[in-house]
Amino acid sequence: MKKMKIRTRMLLFFTLLSSFLFIIFIIAFASIEVDNTRSEYEQLARQTANTIGYMPAIADAVAIQDQEELEGHIDRIRLQVQQPIVSVVDDEKNVVYHSLDLNAQLSPSDEVYDRTIMFGSYQNNSELDEMSIQIIAPVYQQMADNGERLVGAVSVEYPRETLMSSIADKFIRLGIVALISLAVLGTGVVLFARNIREDTLGMEPVEIASKFTERQAMLESVKEGILAINTDKKITLINPSARLLLHHEEDKILLIEALGLHDVIQKETFVYDEERTFNGYPLIANLRPMYTNKRLVGAICSFRYKTDMRQLQLMMDQMKSYADGLRAQTHEFKNKLYVIMSLLQLEQYDEAIRFVQEEAIVTDQFLPKLNRIEDAGIQAILLASMGKAAEKNIHMVIEDRSSLSPTHIPISSMTIMLGNVIDNAIEAVQDEKQKNIGIFMTDIGDDIIIEIEDSGVGIARDEQHLVVEQGYSRKGSGRGYGLYNVESTLREYNGSLEIANSELGGACVSIILPKKERGIGS
Amino acid sequence: MNVIIAEDDFRVSGIHEAYVTSVEGFQVVSRALNGKELRSSLKAADVDLILLDIYFPDERGTDLLMHIRSEYPDMDIIVISASDEPQDLLIAKRFGVYDFLVKPVSKERFEQRFANITAPRLVSSLVCIYRSGC
Fold first, then answer.
1. A-B interface: how many C-beta pairs under 8 angstroms?
2. Which of A50, A180, A264, A398 could crosslink A299 through cysteines, CB 3.0-4.6 Å?
3. How far apart are CA A508 and CA A502, in angstroms?
4. CATH topology classification for B2-132
């Protein structure tokens, strides 16, 4: 199921959470507010009843049952205390004033005023369940001798409707505030989510998690070393390949300096395929600054061993050279057909027959020798090399005694080893008068032995140990990696390289490989 | 017309010589087995036409084309090679070779191409005489 967007999720979550909180808040508020409202109205009713009960004008009016006088005073008071229902009775329980019905009378059985009229008691007849308030207070008349006389009772009543209306009014105001708060919260959530998305480059958390997993897998799988630092020169990213270079804690700082990441941060420059050296290892590095929202946040570097790249390049050169060799063989074949066709057209039939016979002999001799080399990879290398040699008029032969079973060496490694040695032999004889190359290979015994000899100028005895060193060459600068790579690859298979003088007059290079795989690289 | 045959295979070179000499008005003045021999032959003889192969032991015929065109701009060149790679054809076209023949070439086709080469040369010679008396 597709996950909701972060903005939607945040909005939903905050809406639900805030709604829940609001409901709790409203319930609590309502409970408190109802109590408060009751208390307020009760107090107001008590104060109003007291005020009316102690007003001399009211007491006098009750004593003489002057309704008009009472109406005038009480209506003014009612206006100021939210219009309660007020009724006044005399000491005979006759209704002297009633704010709703001026002609109202009490029934003889009505005992609501009895306690007040008889004993001057204050009564609180509020109905908790009904949400109504009624306070009854005595009305005293001031006498000439400073005494008081009970002349009646006053009732101040707030009905349920008044209380509910007051509570509802407060709730409406609270509701408006709540809605505004929700709207502000929703807008805040949207803006917050947008802000988060800006920080996450517009990606959803699930996308970030996926990319993070991919990134981890990629960093761990690449052969290149990858190292990133922030503007405080602290490492923020390092993959296993880069970590291989670090043997001590202080190597981190040295590696950052060796790669030149500081300069990239300071100058904000991009660097492509530049050579760096760390602990004696030549590295090819690419560096670039990193930006977030156009703000420099650090620099990143990818690097790999220079020798790896050179080896790869050499292998590609070898492959290209084999393709050329095969192309040369095709051309050679076409040339031979062309010779036969032309001799026939020139009516030189004897010459044509002789040519065909010669070619048949060469093929008869060559094919069985090639077939005795049963390793398909080596066969391919030999065929391509022979094509290349033939194009340069070099006589390349496989020695009669040669034979080889399929080997455990992959063709990529064999290309580096055998290909480089044959190429060297071709180069050694191409400008010589005698252009001969002999190849011998055998796997009798425990080792695979491949010998390539040529009729070139050879390698002096005191030079023979130098030719396997990296960069050593008699052919000029930028060379001297062929035999170095051959020996490096041979070491991977516990093999060895021997150089001697050849009976053909030039060098004889021997490749010796253990026949069985005995812990490669051990 | 004086012809140089530049071909690294001596048998093919011999066949080309037989073909060239069978066409009236053409004679082979030299046979070069590699690029080095071709350069020295061009210096030594007065040459009108080169039959040029693409692959030599020491260098490629396409590289030799640049040398021939810069040193001998009026010389006619026919490339005859087993190669039919587009890159080689493109280079040959760029250097203005007269023809590009892909081996194997029959004797009839060879003679036909040689017969054609004399016509434009005759016309260009007449134009040259008319214009400046060269």
1. 52
2. A264
3. 5
4. Rossmann fold (3.40.50)
